[in-house]
């Protein structure tokens, strides 16, 4: 029983780690406080839903389509975010709150308020490893998160480009002085962050029922994980993501699903009270 | 010397504006006489008055530089407070709305103390999360609130000579409360209190060095703001007659006051009212017929356009920014 909770919590946590990594990369290079993160995730989910249900593609072909669609959206968003004036964090949080409302209503117009899910019947089959039964979906989630997170870790820690990117996150001006192309790095990292959301979208739609207002909780979790871990700290983000996944699973089992959003909000408030400077104070 | 010219400047600008606004409000009181047949217009206008009052409450707090994404918490608690008071003590709605306002003010004061160290985006984030807590309580304290079934049979407003709960009653109640709130907010913003808030918004550290007590002013401002939002929620509950947690503690009532105040112009006293009138009419008469499902896309677009192209909102375009003390 507890082992099962642990496993599904880790699978969920890996998923949280991916979306928090996306949030962290976007915030790190552009200082955009993206409150519409969960809605972008839903957008990826809906794109995959259309690809699967309307055009009859399978789950895997729908993943690159979702990534591509969101990256294109990211190009537009990056241009728009560049126009927003100081104080950047506050203005972008208000702006992206507007984006939340706009996207939610676009989903309503195109997909109505129905609950939708990507049907992947082969994923509910269970596999037994060491006497513990996983569903195939949990295993896939876990592996995808593991692979993408380790790839990112390698990129950021062991390549020159990753070093340049971390420098950009830490201090834009100093990085520019050292000859790093700050603008190019920013665009690449922003699009990378959005692409991660596009990767997570189809998974989100195959685990949860998606509906137009279902994005806000994912946003709050991404923010919690990023604040706890610190911007751009890949390993810490994975730990924090797993922590949130386990906590959510525990709350759902002990108290019931009705308390999940409330507990997420309480956690966010507690963390903000503990770290009033939020993302700014992590070095 | 500078103070005197500033005061003169203020009075020259202030009095013609007061006359215009008073005239406009009197005109609105006359609308029912002309348009009594068109009950849809009355309904839309009443709604816009309620939103205007909510936006005014929100904007009072925003004057101090604190952007709240959680006024639904105060609105919803006001709705529940007033409805429960009226149902359990069998009182008149005009009495119980004060209980609703008080409930909103208490939660606001509590969050003001709790979030005293948070600024900017993090204050906004904390208020966004705050909404879930009263919602969770209202959803799960079934013996008091009936949980997600909601409260039914909330008593309607009754005015002498008018049918109970008619559109006209709600219109008059909403317009009167908007007028009173506008008066209160205008008095606050044109007093030392208001200037303290403007100073705090522009530079908190400098304001504190000239003796403005940041914590005190923020606390009383958020309490009054929560009181206003609570009253709005209470009025909403008695006009609709039925409330449930998901309905009043929704993102909708956190977003609306912000959209309308920003769009109308958050650096002007009357801006939120202008924003509410324009956006509600636009929503109900243009967007609703075109996109019946997602007509609230208007509000999202309005925020984005305001942030990108007109930081002073509509009133800013009309020249209110020339007034000088506008700030970030």
Based on the model shown, name its key terms.
heterodimer, A: 283 residues, mainly alpha, ABC transporter involved in vitamin B12 uptake, BtuC, two-stranded antiparallel sheet, 11 helices, 3% strand, globular, B: 328 residues, 16 helices, 75% helix, 0% strand
Topology at a glance:
The complex is a heterodimer of chains A (283) and B (328).
Chain A (H helix, E strand, L loop, with lengths): L1 H29 L6 H18 L4 H25 L4 H24 L14 E4 L2 E4 H23 L1 H11 L1 H6 L4 H26 L8 H14 L4 H21 L5 H15 L9
Antiparallel strand pairs in A: 1-2
Chain B lengths: L1 H34 L3 H24 L8 H19 L3 H22 L5 H11 L1 H9 L1 H4 L21 H23 L2 H11 L1 H6 L4 H27 L4 H4 L2 H14 L6 H20 L6 H13 L3 H5 L11
Helix pairs in contact in B: 1-8, 2-8, 2-11, 2-13, 2-14, 3-4, 3-6, 3-11, 3-13, 4-11, 8-11, 13-14, 13-15
Description of the structure:
The complex is a heterodimer of chains A (283) and B (328). The model of chain A has no long low-confidence stretch (mean pLDDT 84). With 283 residues, chain A is mainly alpha-helical. In chain A, helix 6 crosses helix 8 and helix 9 runs parallel beside helix 11. Chain A has a single domain, classed as ABC transporter involved in vitamin B12 uptake, BtuC. Chain B is mainly alpha-helical. Helix content of chain B is 75%, strand content 0%. Chain B contains 16 helices and no strands. In chain B, helix 1 runs antiparallel to helix 8, helix 2 runs parallel beside helix 8 and helix 8 packs antiparallel against helix 11. Chain B is globular, with a radius of gyration of 19 Å. The C terminus of chain B is likely disordered. Chains A and B meet through helix 4, helix 9 and helix 11 of A and helix 5, helix 6, helix 13 and helix 15 of B.
Question: TL;DR of this structure?
Answer:
Chain A is an all-alpha fold. Chain A has helices spanning 2-30, 37-54, 59-83, 88-111, 136-158, 160-170, 172-177, 182-207, 216-229, 234-254, 260-274; strands spanning 126-129, 132-135.
């Amino acid at each position: 029983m507890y082992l099962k909770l642990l496993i599904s919590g880790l699978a969920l946590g890996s998923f949280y780690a991916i979306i928090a990594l996306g949030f962290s990369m976007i915030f790190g290079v552009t200082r955009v406080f993206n409150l519409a993160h969960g809605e972008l995730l839903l957008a990826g989910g809906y794109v995959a839903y259309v690809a699967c249900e309307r055009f009859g593609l399978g789950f895997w072909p729908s993943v690159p389509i979702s990534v591509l669609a969101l990256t294109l959206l990211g190009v537009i968003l990056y241009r728009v975010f560049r126009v927003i004036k100081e104080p950047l964090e506050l203005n972008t949080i208000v702006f992206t709150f507007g984006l939340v409302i706009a996207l939610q209503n676009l989903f309503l117009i195109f997909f109505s308020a129905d609950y939708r899910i990507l049907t992947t019947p082969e994923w509910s089959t269970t596999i037994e490893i060491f006497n513990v039964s996983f569903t195939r979906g949990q295993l896939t989630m876990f592996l995808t998160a593991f692979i993408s997170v380790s790839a990112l870790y390698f990129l950021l820690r062991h390549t020159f480009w990753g070093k340049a990117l971390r420098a950009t996150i830490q201090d834009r001006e100093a990085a520019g002085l050292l000859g790093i192309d700050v603008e190019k790095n920013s665009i690449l990292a922003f699009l990378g962050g959005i692409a991660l959301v596009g990767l997570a979208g189809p998974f989100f739609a195959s685990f949860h029922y998606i509906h137009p207002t279902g994005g806000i909780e994912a946003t709050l979790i991404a923010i919690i994980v990023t604040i706890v871990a610190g911007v751009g700290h890949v390993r810490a983000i994975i730990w924090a993501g797993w922590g949130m996944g386990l906590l959510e699973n525990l709350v759902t089992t002990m108290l019931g699903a009705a308390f999940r959003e409330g507990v997420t909000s309480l956690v966010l408030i507690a963390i903000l009270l503990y770290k009033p400077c939020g993302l700014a104070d992590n070095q | 010397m500078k103070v005197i010219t500033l005061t003169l400047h203020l009075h020259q600008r202030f009095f013609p504006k007061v006359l215009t606004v008073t005239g406009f409000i009197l005109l609105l009181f006359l609308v029912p006489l002309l348009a009594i047949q068109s009950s849809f217009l009355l309904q839309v206008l009443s709604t816009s008055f309620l939103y205007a009052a909510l936006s005014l409450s929100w904007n009072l707090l925003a004057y101090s530089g604190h952007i709240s994404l959680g006024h639904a918490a105060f609105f919803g608690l006001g709705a529940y407070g007033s409805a429960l008071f009226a149902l359990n003590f069998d009182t008149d709605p005009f009495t119980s709305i004060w209980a609703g306002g008080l409930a909103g003010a208490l939660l606001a004061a509590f969050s003001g103390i709790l979030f005293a160290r948070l600024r900017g985006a993090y204050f906004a984030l904390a208020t966004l999360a705050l909404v879930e807590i009263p919602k969770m309580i209202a959803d799960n304290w079934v013996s008091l609130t009936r949980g997600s079934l909601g409260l039914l049979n909330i008593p309607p407003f009754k005015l002498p000579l008018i049918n109970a709960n008619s559109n006209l009653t709600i219109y008059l109640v909403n317009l009167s409360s908007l007028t009173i709130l506008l008066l209160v907010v205008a008095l606050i913003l044109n007093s030392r209190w208001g200037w303290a808030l403007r100073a705090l918004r522009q530079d908190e550290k400098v304001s504190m060095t000239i003796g403005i007590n940041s914590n005190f002013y923020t606390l009383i401002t958020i309490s009054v703001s929560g009181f206003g939002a609570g009253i709005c929620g209470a009025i909403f509950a008695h006009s609709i007659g039925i409330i449930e947690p998901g309905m009043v503690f929704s993102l909708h009532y956190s977003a609306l006051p912000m959209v309308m105040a920003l769009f109308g112009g958050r650096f002007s006293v009357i801006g939120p009212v202008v924003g509410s009138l324009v956006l509600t009419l636009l929503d109900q008469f243009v967007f609703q017929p075109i996109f019946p499902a997602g007509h609230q896309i208007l509000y999202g677009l309005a925020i984005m356009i305001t942030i990108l192209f007109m930081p002073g909102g509509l009133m800013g375009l009309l020249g209110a920014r020339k007034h000088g003390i506008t700030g970030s």
